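Notes continue from the previous slide.

Worked example: a multi-chain complex. Inputs as given:
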Amino acid sequence: MQGFEGEQRRRYILHRRREAQVRSLKIKAALIDNEGVLKCEVPRCGFDFGATYGELGKEFAHVHHLKPLSEAPPEGRRVKLNELAIVCPNCHAMIHRGGQCRPLVGLIPSP
Ligand SMILES: [Zn+2]
Ligand SMILES: [Zn+2]
């Protein structure tokens, strides 16, 4: 059981490491598009780092691949910015919970 959990964690870290390479590009583009505001793109979330954390939260967000990186060849692939989404850490963890890659729509259920 320990080994199984360890494997899931390793995959998640690898995934996040790949995302870090394009993270700053996506954040810069989103800042220009939204006039300096970064909000989680998960419907019904919309967490705004700047609004909550002020100066500390400025220009911070997680960046998520909408197309799972597990489908990419080991050497990697080109990523378009519209294949990426700005997400908050809570939503990002829920998207990948259990080693999955869930769609943004429906992640937070309607009341
Ligand atoms: Zn992700
Ligand atoms: Zn969120």
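Summary box: The chain has one domain: 2-99. The helical segments are 2-33, 49-53, 89-95.
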